[in-house]
Amino acid sequence: QPRLVESGGGQVQPGESLTLSCAAAGGFSLDGQPIGWFRQAPGNEREGIACVSASAHHSFYGDSVKGRFTISRDNAKNAVTLQMSSLEPEDTAVYYCAQLIAPCAPLTLAPFDGNFAGPGYGLWGQGTEVTVSS
User: Fold this and answer.
1) Residue 29 burial (CB count, 10 A)
2) Which of 8, 26, 51, 125 has its CA 20 to 30 A from that of 82?
């Protein structure tokens, strides 16, 4: 069954770094797919934080992570990674990767209606938990 699998979550202290990976499985390939990373903290709405185009020529970031997070593609490993640095307690959340049917663009990370279940989004992973705490 085609699916996305996130890994790399864990607990770190403020200021530390962590790298998440989104891998394809079940016969699914990330090749040619724009991919996004999203997160949801307890009691909060889901938030789009980064996306990368199919060609890797374009990427966009949410304001809350700009300058601290970097999204990149590793086509050889059929994966997309999210390097997170200078982590803050506010980054604590479950992180999800998703196949984007819509292009990687600011509006894809922050749709007007806040609906991440719409036709612009395809497969979602099950999430990996990140906790930033001293």
Assistant:
1) 10
2) 26
| DSSP at 108 | H
Residue 125 near residue 22, CB atoms below 8 Å: yes
In contact, 89 and 132? CB cutoff 8 Å: yes
Quote the strand ranges of 41-126, DSSP E: 47-52, 59-61, 69-74, 79-84, 93-100, 121-124
User: Over the range 33-70, which residues count as b (16 or more CB within 10 Å of their CB) and which as e?
Assistant: bbbbbbbeeeeeebbbbbbbbbebeebbbbeebeeebb
Region label for 65, one of left (φ > 0), alpha (ψ between -120 and 50) or beta (otherwise): alpha
Which residue type occupies 37? W
**Is residue 35 predicted with pLDDT exceeding 90?**
yes
Strands 128-132 and 10-12: parallel
- Per residue in 92-127, pLDDT tens? 999 999 999 999 999 999 888 888 888 899 999 999
Measured between alpha carbons, how far is 45 from 59 in angstroms, rounded to an integer? Answer: 22
